[in-house]
Specification:
Elements: H1 2-14, H2 17-26, H3 30-44, H4 52-80, H5 85-120, H6 128-136, H7 138-159
Helix pairs in contact: 1-3, 2-7, 3-4, 3-5, 4-5, 5-6, 6-7
Length: 160
């Protein structure tokens, strides 16, 4: 499982910005995997003493929204054939808020990991808040992040 995660997280960070942009715009879901890859490759994998809580939070924050999308679609199909839409919305609302919270946590973790990696390698950084804004507005942020990520992955490869 670890090798599979390693393979796909490196794949995401080695792509050209246009490919990541199109994947995220057309499908939406790869955006979560892109953020997962940033945190996994730049922080968790580089850190010698791994924090299990942070690793669990990363996995949960990434895969819960991906899982939730499919559950949400099933609920929407159920609403089409049901007369009582209000009761279904009251059931799904907490799960929806949890998915939004997971997305926010993942963006924060991604920005902090990116900034931490830049600071640890003595690279001029723009700060975690600016990185968070660029991730939140990923339509612009991908064009700034992805070329740097390609360079950082090459730098990590050359160290190992």
């Amino acid at each position: 499982m670890e090798k599979l995660i390693e393979k796909y997280s490196k794949w995401f960070l080695e792509q050209k910005p246009i490919k990541i942009f199109l994947l995220c715009m057309l499908l939406g879901l790869p955006f979560y995997l892109w953020m997962f890859s940033i945190v996994y490759q730049l922080d968790i994998k580089q850190n010698n003493k791994r924090n299990k809580w942070k690793e669990f939070l990363l996995y949960f924050s990434t895969f819960y929204p991906l899982f939730y999308v499919f559950i949400f679609i099933l609920f929407m199909i159920n609403i089409l054939f049901s007369n009582d839409a209000n009761s279904i919305f009251s059931i799904i609302l907490p799960f929806h808020f949890l998915a939004m919270l997971c997305s926010l946590i993942l963006m924060i973790m991604c920005a902090k990991s990116y900034t931490k990696f830049e600071k640890s390698n003595h690279i001029n950084t723009s700060g975690a808040f600016v990185n968070f804004i660029l991730i939140a507005y990923y339509i612009v942020g991908i064009w700034i992040f992805q070329p740097k990520l390609n360079n950082y992955i090459e730098m990590i490869k050359s160290k190992n």
